[in-house]
Amino acid sequence: MWLLPSGPDQVGEAFARTISERGYDGCGGWNQALQGRMAHQNIFAGNPLDRAGDLRNDPEWLAAQEANPEAQALVLWEGRPLVEETADGPRLAWLSLKHARDMVPDRDVFLGLWKAAPVFAIEFEGSIDPAEGPVRGLGAFHEMRGAAAILPAQDAAMAGGAKSLFDWRRKHGFCANCGTLSETISGGWKRRCPACGTEHFPRVDPVTIMLPVYKGGPEPICLLGRQAAWPVGRMSALAGFLEPGESIEEACAREVKEEAGLTVVDAVYHSSQPWPFPSQLMIGLIAEVSDDQARPDQTELESVAWLTRAEARAVLAGVHPTIQAPPPFAIAHSLIKAWAEEG
Questions:
Q1: What are the residue ranges of helices labelled H in the chain?
Q2: 75: Cα separation from own chain's centroid
Q3: pTM higher than the cut 0.85
Q4: Fewer CB within 10 Å, N- or C-terminus of the chain?
Q5: Which domains does the chain have, with CATH numbers?
Q6: CA 163 – CA 149 distance, rounded (Å)
Q7: Which regions of the chain are under pLDDT 50?
Q8: Residue 93: partners with Cβ closer than 8 Å, 6 or more residues away
């Protein structure tokens, strides 16, 4: 009885379908200038909510949203979203905020507005599955990567954003300036130290992820790398964190040189992806390199492989004899596909 019949995932289907076509500005309106740049949208991007970033700092306004009888909440358990099966396939399950808070007091964040309706998230903690207790019969909790593979894109975006907020809240409870326990304000988007007044904001770690390509041979080829911890056969694009004082292009060139011994001569932006593990922003690039003499560093990469476009398409189709593609919800998959389909 706690499940709302029409959450943002359901009443907003037509709205969500047009995001990639018209360009959503993240503030409840359309930005026509984004139309071309948002032609490709990765999973975990495309959140349909108005974040109300200019309003959530007002305690009175936020209290009014919490008291709104239409306020609703998606549910997480240790970073896993609650998913229900519907006639249209798996969707996020929604509870009224009141019932959600009855189950999990003081453990919610404000995600934004769906039209005039406030949208929140709550998170259960602990080792006992709430689907066997408080939310029995309302769905099942899925690990976020698994959920991303089955949920509609906008559902995954809302769930991923909520996970990142809770992860930050869990790991940054104390003031980094003086060590005092900080307090949550602005609906969970800010923490403030009651002792020294320092304000802390959710952390986002930028990562360059790039597909090296070489154009100097008989036909263009791209490079995939493999980490030892991955499933057998899995290969992917190269990636690494940006360092302080480093541009995106510089980080791309450094990581390709460190991991594969190649020199980047050009880098072209493709797209980006919020990555809630725990809170990265993946910045996708196609990186042209000067030669094809790749050498895996044996620290981050244990092996590398050059592929023609035809071979890359075989990898994506799952018919390559030895190489498995990254999952379709990962930006690495998008980069390989974009390059493979050029020719």
A1: 8-11, 13-17, 19-22, 59-67, 97-103, 144-150, 153-171, 248-260, 309-317, 331-340
A2: 17
A3: yes
A4: N
A5: 8-171 (3.90.79), 205-340 (3.90.79.10)
A6: 16
A7: 1-25, 28, 30-36
A8: 3, 74, 75, 82, 83, 84, 135, 138, 139
Contact 163, 76 (CB under 8 A): yes
Residue 236, C-beta contacts closer than 8 angstroms, at least 6 positions apart: 224, 225, 226, 230, 325, 326, 330, 332
pLDDT of residue 106: 86
Q: Which tokens belong to 336?
A: 């390989």
118 φ, ψ (degrees, to nearest 5): -70, 140
Closest by CA to 154, choosing from 2, 290, 47, is 47
Task: Express each pLDDT in 143-191 by its tens digit.
Answer: 999 999 999 999 999 999 999 999 999 999 999 999 999 999 999 999 9
What angle is formed at CA 114 by the lines to CA 109 and CA 115, rounded to 5 degrees? Answer: 140
Q: Which amino acid is at 173?
A: G
Query: Rounded to the nearest 5°, which phi and psi values hold at 87?
Result: -65, -25
**Crossing angle between the packed helical segments 331-340 and 309-317, to the nearest 10 degrees:** 140
- Virtual CA dihedral for 240, 245, 249, 254, nearest 10 degrees? -50
> How many residues are present in the chain?
343
- Give the whole-angstrom CA distance, residue 250 versus residue 264: 9
